[in-house]
Amino acid sequence: MKNKSWIIILIMGIALAISLAYSIWMSQRASNVGESTVTTTSIIEMTATTATIKNTLTGTGNVAYREKEEVQNQNSTNTQEQENNEGPNDVVEENIERTYQITLTIEDKDLEKAKIGQEVEISIKKEEESLNYLGEVTNITENTNNHSTLNIEITNPDDKIEENMSATCTVIIEKAENVVALPVEAIQRNDQNEPFVDVVQADGTTKSVVIETGISDDYYVEITSGLSVGDRVQIVKSTTTVVNENERNKNMTSER
User: Fold this and answer.
1) What is the fold of 54-72+98-175?
2) What three-state secondary structure class fits 160?
3) Is 164 helix (H, G, I), strand (E, B) or coil?
4) Which helix (DSSP H) or strand (DSSP E) does residue 176 occupy?
5) What is the DSSP-derived secondary structure letter of residue 161?
6) 42-52+177-241 CATH pick, 1.10.287.3510, 2.40.420.20, 2.170.130.30, 2.60.120.230
7) pLDDT of 102-129, one tens digit each?
8) pTM summary value
């Protein structure tokens, strides 16, 4: 008898779960009634221009003061002292060269991009003033903890620099100056994975032109072949959104 009671309870529980699941499904289905997707297509036109494109590594570090002491011993003989039977006079000339260096930490995956001698743009915030300097990568140290370091020497220091200042360093990995360029989003790929653009013709139609590209940054791509400054290109952008017809009709009614 007890076994029959447990079977009845089990059957009732299964029936209740099925009923609840069905109710949820119907509720979701009802809420989706009246929804539709709307696709908006827009044509964007861009013009090839000249730009300076930089591929960079960026990081921060603190300014450290260094002194290079160059001591030159110069033995010179004073003619007058020789006439007075005095010994030679040893002249010691000291030149102290002041340098400012910054140690920049980079990830090991970027290590192969860094080279000694690369130009560095340095920005330092001092109170309300922004100080800008140039630097050069003088040493590269590879570490074993997935991070390596670059030693950067400021090449045009002045008396405004102080030790322990925080500096933002932009290492120029490669740079192309005054080259033909297009925004990154203007470049498309064909079935052969070749870069191409849709060039606007004189009659307003477009023609697909395969191009060759050089370096790029977050904004522009260098065009090494296929386009000239002033050429216009088009891209087509499509945006799909879900519209609830009931809500839209309600808004239209309220506007009236």
Assistant:
1) Elongation Factor Tu (Ef-tu); domain 3 (2.40.30)
2) coil
3) coil
4) strand 166-183
5) -
6) 2.40.420.20
7) 998 888 788 888 999 999 999 998 888 8
8) 0.59
